[in-house]
Amino acid sequence: KGARDYYLHRERCIYCDLINQELEVKKRVVLESEHFAVITPFASRFPFETWILPKKHHCDFDRGVSGCENDLAQVLKAVLQKIKVGLNDPEYNYVIHSAPIRRHSKVSPEWKTIEEDYHWHIEVMPVLTRMAGFEKGTGFYICSIPPENTAEYLREVKVS
């Protein structure tokens, strides 16, 4: 919904804008490959939360990753190794965000711009803290480490 609202207001994809801005500023960029940008998001929910974003716009993971599978594998491996080495091998969760299946009978009639407004991506979240009462009660997250610091730290972690 947020991506759609942004698109309706600005007539462009919020994730494409985010990628362009982050690659220009570079403060929250962990690494970059030919096809992907890896960043720590501005409003991180968790310490060392990391997003893998394809540079080319596509709403679907399955079709959007086509032709870039090896690059994604190398990027994901590098990110997970940096987390393992740099953060003492924590547990982690990762989520692949992709547009929902759009069968004609199931498509929400008000969401006609999904192919233009949504951008598939992967979120990697090391399990370093626990949600406390404030987060559970409000739905707002408190992350005690600025994403610029976590990106800098992860950039400097050497992996083979």
Please tell me about this protein's structure.
This protein is of the alpha+beta class. Helices cover 39% and strands 16% of the residues. It has seven helices and five strands. The mean pLDDT is 92.
Question: Which properties best describe this structure?
Answer:
single chain, 160 residues, alpha+beta, five-stranded antiparallel beta sheet, 7 helices, 5 strands, 39% helix, globular
Q: How many β-strands, per DSSP?
A: 5
Order of helices and strands: HHEEEHHEHEHH
Strand neighbour order, sheet with most strands: 1-2-3-5-4
- Which term fits the overall shape? globular
Rounded to the nearest angstrom, the distance between the terminal CA atoms is 40 Å
**Largest sheet, described in full?**
5 strands, antiparallel
Mean pLDDT metric: 92
Brief sketch in words of this structure:
The chain is α+β, with helices and mostly antiparallel strands and 160 residues long.
